[in-house]
Structures are given as structure tokens and as C-alpha cells.
Amino acid sequence: MHSSATRGAIVLEMGVALLTLFVGLYIALRHVAQDGGMATVHDHQLAVFADHLAHDLENIERPGVQTFLPWFQEVYCLDRRPVEYIMAGNERLDSNHVPTLVVRGREGTCFSFARVEVLYALAPEAATRALLDSGPASGFKDGIVDAYARGALREAFGRLTPTEVLLSNAKQAATLAAKEDLERSLQRHGLTVLEVSVSKPTFSGKYEETISRRKVADQDAFKVNVERTQMLAGRTAILEQARKEKELELERMRETLQSSIRKALRDQELTRYEADRKQSDRSLASGLALAENQAEAQALRVELERSTAALRDQEQTLRASQAAALDQRRRELQLEQAKMRDGQKAELVQTQQGFDEALQGARSAKLAKVLEAELQLAADQREAQVLMEVAQLDAQGFQAQTNAFAAHGVAAVRAALVDKLMGISFEIAPTPHLPTPNQAQAIAYSKPIQ
Questions:
Q1: Which domain holds residue 155?
Q2: Are 72 and 52 in contact (CB under 8 A)?
Q3: Which residue, of 115, 147, 347, 450, has the greatest Cβ tally within 10 A?
Q4: What is the CB neighbour count within 10 angstroms for residue 442?
Q5: Is residue 94 left, alpha or beta, with left meaning phi > 0 and alpha meaning psi from -120 to 50?
Q6: Residue 434 has what pLDDT?
């Protein structure tokens, strides 16, 4: 019993001693570290809890008192308030107040911005990165933004011409591009860009004067456009008034035209009725006349058939009589040809006798031969001419009969044949005189048949 009580007292004493040891050690460490093992995180701060034993870092965004074990743990407080980086003036005051930004544009013209403001701050989720990169306190404010801001702005605005940089849309786009570029550069340092503000660009004196003149010209152009718009509005009103008047006039003309059309349609109906009535009367009269003409044509057709039959009979009779007359005429022509041949032979005998007498009286045999040849040629020509005239007579007689029959019928053929037969005549030329040997031969023949 006594041993158990003694053992309990010993344990209690050891526990109290250990507790006292730990408390004393903690008080000693706080005294040596001079921070008491507690850190206050304000509203404008971020804290990073560093555990050296576990080699771990933890972001603390909640304000308040944070406890830690001195020497083995630490709490680093970082300022999270936005920092303003300004480019203005001609002198460098500190890392966040630097000289004016000057940019060379795409066309080589330089322009500057009187004031450029970059608002940046510590990224809450990247406080640990900022602590490792720039150390505790406000190390991230010393020169990090200055190292990237001027290059990013020059890169973005250097792509614009002086004319484009004056345009609000182009300027805003360049500012946004510079902000995005600067944001990418500061992310590795645990910082973020909140806003980039750029003032109106300025140029050299001559360029500013040119810009001023251009503004005046733009104002004049705007004034001219306003006046032109007013004139167009007045012109539009005039045209609208004229259009309304023309529409009223067109409406009146359309009504007049419709009235004229209705009247014309009524007149057309009346004219069509009158024309139909006249056409009906004409059709009736034409039917009667047609019936009369058909009856008359039938009578004429019967008479024509009778006349045709009589003409056929006369034609057959005429052809028979014509054949007999042609036979008779052929026999007469043969007799006349025989008589002509006998007469020619007698003439040739007389001519031969005269030629013989001429030959006897000729002085040279050569002249006698010439005379004999000429006489023989004359006799042959005379005989050929007689035969040709007989053939022409036969042909003329037959053609005359045919033409007369075709043109005038049977009576005309008969009259033509009689007239042709009565008109045939013959004339025999006298016997030529033989020339003397000293004279040229002259033989003349008259036309025997007319």
C-alpha cells in the first residue's frame, strides 16, 4: 500500500517536472526569438506559414493571430495592398516612379505618354512563390515591375502608327495587349496586374500642329457632312412631296383610264352586236346568191358538156379532112417538084449549049475551065435552094394548121389552111446571059416562094 502511494507520487512529480521543463523551454525560446511565438495577420496582409521541421510552406489568407513554435516554425506577413507603378516626368524617384514612356511607332515616328500607371499587387494564391522569389517584407516592390513594364508597353504600342495610336479602339487594344504580356511576365514572381492606364499620346511640335490642322479639317468635314445631310433631308422632303403629287395625279389618270376602258368595252359590245347582225344578213344573202350561182353553174356545166361533145365531133371531122388535104397537097407538091426538075434540066441543057458556044469563042483554055466551074456551081445552088424551099413550105403549112387549131378551133384551122394554100406562088428566075471572056460573070436569082 505504501509502495503504491510512493509510486504515484513519483509519477506525478515527474509529470509536473516535465511540464515545467516544457513551459520553461517555451518561455526561453520566445525570449530568445523576441516574437513570442505569435504573429498578427492584418486585413491588408497575406501570411506564409513555414514549418522548418516538415519543410512545408502554407498560404494563410485569413486575418488574425497565428501561433507557431519559435525556431522550428515561422510566420511571414506580406503586404497585399495594390502598388502603383508610375511613368511620368524626367527623373527616376524610386523603383515605382520612373521617367516618361517614349515609343517609336511602326512608321519610325516617336511619340510619348505623359503618364502611364500600372497597378499591380501580390497574387493571393502565389504568396509562397513571391516569398521564395523576393524574400519577406516588401521585396517584390523593388524593381520587378520596372524590369518588364517598359518593354511590354513599347512592344504593344510600337506596332501602331501615329494615326492609329490616336484611335481609341487601337489604343485600348494595345493597352490590353501590354497588360496581358506584363501579366505573363509577373506570374513567375507571384504578382498580378490589376490595371494599366495610359494617357493621351503626345508628339513633336510640328506633328502636333499637323494633328491640330487635321482636327480642324475633320471638324470642317463633319460640318460639311451635316450640311449635306440637311440638304439631302430637304431634298428627300421635296422628292416625297413630288412623289405624293405624282401618285395623286396617277390615281386620277388611272380612274380616267378605267372610265375610258369601260366606255370602250360598251362601244365594243355594241359594235360587235351590229357586226354580228350585219354578218347574219350577209350570210343569208350570200347563201341565196350561192344557191343561184350553183344552179347557174350546173346549167353552164351541162351546156359545156354538150359543146365539148360537138367540138370533139368537129375535131374528128377536121382531122380527117386535114389528112386528106395534106395528102392532096403532098401529091401536088410532088408534081410541082417533077415539073421544076424538068425545067431545071431544060435550063441546064440551054446553059450547057451556051457554055459550049462560049468555050468555042474563048481565047484560052483556062478561062473556059473557070466559066464551066461557075456554071456548074450556079446550077447546084439553084437545085439546093429549090429543095429547101419545098421543105420549108411543107413545114410552114403543118405549123400553121396546128397553131390555128390550137388558137381558134376547127373553123380557124380550115380558114388558115385555105389561106395558106391560096398564098403559095412560084417564080422562076430568067436564064442568065453568058458573059464575054473579058467581062465578069453576073447571075441573079429572084426569091421563088413567098
A1: 82-203
A2: yes
A3: 347
A4: 8
A5: beta
A6: 45
Antiparallel, parallel or unpaired: β 115-122 and 83-88: antiparallel
State CA 272 to chain mean position distance.
Answer: 51
Q: Tell me which of 30, 55, 76 is where a domain ends.
A: 76
DSSP codes joined into one string, 30-56: HHHHSSTTEEEE-TTEEEEEEETTTTE
Q: What is the DSSP letter of 442?
A: -
The more confident residue out of 101 and 289 is: 101
Q: What is the pLDDT of residues 348-373, one digit of tens each?
A: 778 777 767 766 665 566 665 666 77
**What DSSP letter does each residue of 72-99 carry, written as one string?**
TEEEEEEE-S-EEEEEESSS--BTTEEP
CA dist., res. 200 & res. 211, Å (int): 13
Three-state secondary structure string covering 385-405: HHHHHHHHHHHHHHHHHHHHH
**Could you tell me which residues come within 8 angstroms of residue 417 by beta carbon, excluding any fewer than 6 positions away?**
322, 325, 397, 400, 401, 404
Q: What is the DSSP string of 302-353?
A: HHHHHHHHHHHHHHHHHHHHHHHHHHHHHHHHHHHHHHHHHHHHHHHHHHHH
pTM for the full predicted model: 0.40
Return the residue matching grid coordinates 436564064.
431
Are the CB atoms for 49 and 66 separated by under 8 Å? Answer: yes
pLDDT of residue 45: 79
154 and 99 in a common domain: yes
Of 410 and 108, the one with more pLDDT: 108
pLDDT greater than 90 at residue 302: no
Number of domain units in the chain: 3
| Partners of 103 in the β-ladder | 111
Determine the Cα–Cα distance for residues 446 and 443; give it in Å rounded to an integer.
Answer: 10
Nearest alpha-carbon partner for 129 in 87, 207, 209, 190? 190
Any domain includes 18: yes
Q: Which of 92, 216, 100 is nearest to 143 (CA)?
A: 92
Say if residue 92 is in the same domain as residue 191: yes
d(CA 264, CA 266): 5
Which residues lie below 8 Å from residue 45, measured CB to CB, with a gap of 6+? 63, 77, 78, 79, 80
To which residue does cell 498560404 refer? 59
Taking only the tens place, the pLDDT of each residue in 394-439 is 666 556 555 655 555 545 545 554 454 455 444 444 444 444 444 4
